[in-house]
User: Fold this.
Amino acid sequence: SQQGEEDPQALSIQEGENATMNCSYKTSINNLQWYRQNSGRGLVHLILIRSNEREKHSGRLRVTLDTSKKSSSLLITASRAADTASYFCATVYSTLTFGKGTMLLVSP
Amino acid sequence: EAGVAQSPRYKIIEKRQSVAFWCNPISGHATLYWYQQILGQGPKLLIQFQNNGVVDDSQLPKDRFSAERLKGVDSTLKIQPAKLEDSAVYLCASSSGLPDEQYFGPGTRLTVT
Assistant:
């Protein structure tokens, strides 16, 4: 069964706004990863945060991890139309387990 | 660096027919994964290989699905016979060994009619 559950299921914003997506999971993890999927580039790894880390940045991406609440968030700042895609969190213990994803639409 | 290659990109078959998908991972990657992604859901792991040995196939429907990775490089995934609910995108991924960053291929979109 899929472990991660993203929230919201869909998000629509304007260019320049920030987008926040949340992920909750159920069991212990070694790390948590976020992936982006669109029709043009397929499924692409964005960022990995280890279980002993609380926050990580990569460009316009900021990921937080709260292992006590079994939750993570992905923040995309100053969004662009090109950020339109589905975003998945994936938890890792021995294998990668994906959630159902958040569909992000960024309008010009 | 060449990415993960998959073929075919699209396949339409009738139920009860058989189909095979091929994957060539990134050179040097020891670990290869096959995922099934049904529309509107995240990818679900079907099978994981480490070199040419199976690490995890707990979610592979073994009555109809089979996979092999001969010589620890290329891999094929077969479905025989196909059912309507097998309609999905089949993704292949590879990694250098640990369950960390995985690199995904473009996928094969299977439609079973």
